[in-house]
## 1
Amino acid sequence: MPEPIDFYFDFSSPYSYVAANLIDALADRHIRSVTWRPILLGPVFEVSGNRPLNAQPMKGDYMRHDVPRLCRRHGIPFAWPEPFPIATVAAARAVYALWDQDAEQAIRFAKAVFRAYFANGRNIGETDGVLAVAADEGIDAAALGQAIQDPAIKARTKAAVDHAIKLKVCGAPFFLVDEEPFWGVDRLPLMDEWMARGGW
């Protein structure tokens, strides 16, 4: 079996939301699984010197036009949430807390968190919002709430972000295919060709 695709994302990234809706179909075409790796863009930007797109003149306006267009193109439900952007540390910790127990459940949960924020306008920036999504998905919210506060999960999340930075993950979404980096949802067609051809 080919190696999994590593998918780095931030729950506050609208382009990550688009990628989250497309990556599984792409992976399936190449008989690959996907390892979902939530990160926090704040620490990444501190190292890269970048800023959130919505804080950048012109680029922010383009993003606000482009993301709904992308979602219409792919049939992905979308509505700009308020507030935007938000802190996503609780959601990221929740995914890591679930991953070791049941990776498929962790992925379903991650997709539900994305939908809650970018399709249904629910604030997942606070722990209560994250746990409400978990409860909707049939996950023990009380147990997950305890896990989010577990020092081991906090340390694991920080280590995951630090490792992503070490790998030069400079934004989200970001993908590694057999250690080959691809940044941005617009690189999915290039990834598709890369895997089909075995690189070049």
## 2
Amino acid sequence: MSVSKIGVIGAGTIGRGVAQSLAQSSFEVVLVDIAESQLVSARSQMERDLRMQGLFRAEKLADDAETILGRITTSTEPEALADVDFVVENVTENWDVKREVYETIDKICRPGVVFAVNTSAVPITRVASVTERPAEVLGLHFMNPVPLMDTVEVVRGYFTSDETLAVAMGLLDATSKEGIVVQDAPGFVTNRVLMLTINEAVFCVQDQVATAEDVDRMFKGCFGHKMGPLETGDLIGLDTILNSLTVMYESFKDSKYRPAPLLQKMVDAKLLGRKTSQGFYTY
């Protein structure tokens, strides 16, 4: 299957990163979001990010920012996805929201179009089950910031076909990203481990074992991590951390995934990290 036009659903931090990364690799992109203001904000942020990459990356961009952004069209209507060859969905980690998205686009996109679920915890097989194309559904878990991260967690659901996997791996190869295939289980590999680490770090702050700064300093100084777990949580978004933990807690029925009360309190207070300028740190 030839892929040249890709639909990207959701213009938040990850969605706009996916759109930018695909456009940098010469794909035509249709970026869809329910809010026009979010699309305007996403385009402005992509322009800033591209100009910064052009200034500071050792490897210069093949095209200028204007050319790359010219490959991205935006829309608030899902019908704009009618002629795409591949879809990457990036909406919130909420099953009710995701289900509605897939039930809608399954009727709009032509048969054979692959649906890639960009999720950190929602089971791919569950998503596939609400479509009429379960063999064409898989997970592509992109990491933030998408244009700068070279590896993607590729999740094979129960129904995912070899052909679908090959199309997705070919797409990643065209964007100079390596796909690592894992099997479908809540949290997969990256978030099954990472979310527990971040959550336990939150418990350490909550229980006054150490400050957020000292927790992160130890992970960077003792283990050589580029970022500590709480800095990572702020980058991902504390609401996303909470949603991911909640999905795994409900899926595994295991108390080790119980979100820290401090995490819930910060999300309730809209202290979500970098995207709100305040989380465990001020930005």
